[in-house]
Design the sequence.
């Protein structure tokens, strides 16, 4: 019977994948392919909702609701089981462009399509930008001054994500120049007559610039959604706040960055006690842990000011973030060497989460710039297998988010890591399989008619 069952599982899984690819490419024109999300995303009346907030319990994410809360039926949603404190492991993705593409009515369907199809692939978390500082179509035009039209675009993203049962990690500022970043904050200060000659470190140290950032964070966290009427700090669609995308400085700025993390994480928690906070670091080890430096991709990584252990240990940081880009970090290595390095990178950080940090570790970016699917598939398989093993053993490796997904005809938002997942069947299958495996570990029965998990869990 086992052999016959195994023989059936392959064709069944293949049929499920074929149906999903058909739907993702032609579903809007094939009404008989009816969307059906996993049952934990459905609310009463057949409408998708998100109930309860994500919390942490030691090294695990957990789903919780407040005592005396909205009264969601616990039998229909794991989000409504506060007393079980069961570990939660997630599969997700990055689409940084959701707010940007929600400004105009003509491009909002791209956002809806991405969120819907990500959900149909079983991915429960999306990381995206909640910042755009200065320049064309900026959210923050100048310190403390906002374009309401763009703010409503972010409002739309939250409402649309909740509609499809996707939680969002919202990043609050960029280390890099695109969308303004810390350089724009320094320029604003300079324009106001502030001496910021040490531009790299001034963002983290100058009181005027820090006040700009705090004012921005307050405006975001306390925002009342134009469409839903829900304050952001009360919205369970938000999975977590990320202080900065990939904060970096110099080796000498490490103590300054650490002080900034402590201060800003505390400030976010002061404004919002319901949501998680993470830093947004890449996972490089610093000089405070010399025994860990060999795990870095090169000597250069320890001199960027970030420090995985020290930064993540900050009192108000709820979980650690890690990125993974073997193609960029060790470009001259062979694919086999990159895969071996990635395995070591993941193992090291999961071990740290369990033994040192005592916090969950979420791999919030993983990507490949190699042409075709072969390199990315090799990286994803290692990452997914490692985080799946972590989930089965109830370890700190809490999941991974691929960088980055788009829908068709979005070249203007693409980079060398971008992909439309349903155009790459092998990559797509790995992503769906991981969703299925983690749903099984989480104890959520999958009844989706869009993707078929038969034979996907091993």
Sequence:
């Amino acid at each position: 019977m086992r052999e016959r069952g195994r023989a059936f599982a392959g064709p069944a899984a293949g049929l499920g994948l074929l149906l999903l690819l058909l739907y993702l490419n032609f579903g809007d024109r094939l009404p008989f392919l009816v969307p059906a999300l996993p049952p934990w995303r459905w609310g009463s009346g057949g409408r998708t909702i998100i109930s309860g907030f994500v919390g942490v319990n030691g090294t695990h994410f957990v789903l919780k609701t407040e005592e005396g809360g909205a009264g969601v039926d616990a039998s229909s949603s794991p989000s409504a089981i506060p007393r079980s404190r069961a570990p939660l492991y997630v599969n997700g993705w990055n689409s940084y462009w959701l707010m940007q593409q929600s400004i105009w009515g003509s491009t909002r369907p791209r956002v809806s399509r991405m969120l819907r199809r990500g959900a149909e692939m079983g991915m429960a978390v999306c990381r995206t930008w909640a910042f755009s500082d200065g320049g064309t179509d900026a959210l923050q035009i100048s310190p403390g001054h906002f374009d309401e039209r763009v703010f409503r675009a972010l409002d739309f993203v939250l409402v649309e994500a909740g509609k499809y049962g996707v939680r969002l990690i919202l990043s609050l500022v960029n280390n890099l120049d695109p969308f303004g970043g810390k350089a724009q904050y320094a320029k604003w200060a300079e324009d106001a007559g502030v001496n910021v000659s040490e531009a790299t470190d001034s963002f983290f140290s100058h009181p005027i610039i820090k006040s700009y950032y705090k004012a921005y964070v307050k405006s975001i966290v306390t925002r009342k959604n134009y469409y839903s009427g829900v304050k952001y700090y009360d919205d369970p669609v938000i999975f977590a706040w990320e202080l900065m995308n990939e904060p970096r400085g110099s080796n000498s700025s490490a103590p300054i960055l650490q002080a900034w993390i402590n201060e800003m994480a505390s400030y976010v928690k002061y404004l919002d006690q319901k949501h998680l906070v993470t830093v947004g670091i890449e996972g490089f080890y610093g000089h405070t842990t010399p025994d860990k430096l060999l795990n870095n991709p090169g000597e250069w990584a320890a001199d960027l000011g970030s420090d995985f252990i020290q930064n993540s240990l900050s009192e108000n940081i709820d979980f650690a973030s890690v990125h993974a880009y073997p193609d960029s970090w060790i470009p001259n290595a062979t694919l086999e060497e990159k895969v071996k390095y990635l395995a070591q990178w993941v193992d090291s950080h999961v071990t740290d989460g369990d033994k040192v940090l005592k916090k969950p570790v979420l791999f919030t970016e993983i990507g490949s710039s190699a042409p075709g699917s072969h390199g990315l598939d090799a990286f994803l398989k290692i990452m997914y297998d490692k985080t799946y093993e972590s989930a089965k053993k109830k370890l700190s490796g809490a999941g991974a988010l691929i960088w980055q997904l788009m829908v068709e005809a979005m070249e203007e938002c693409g980079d060398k890591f971008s992909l439309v997942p349903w155009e790459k069947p092998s990559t797509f299958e790995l992503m769906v399989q991981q969703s299925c495996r983690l749903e099984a570990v989480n104890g959520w029965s999958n009844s989706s008619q869009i993707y078929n998990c038969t034979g996907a869990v091993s």
Observations:
- Confidence is low (pLDDT under 50) at residues 1-10, 26-48, 67-84.
- The chain is about 40% helix and 10% strand.
- The longest helix spans residues 2-26.
- The CA atoms of residues 176 and 431 lie 28 Å apart.
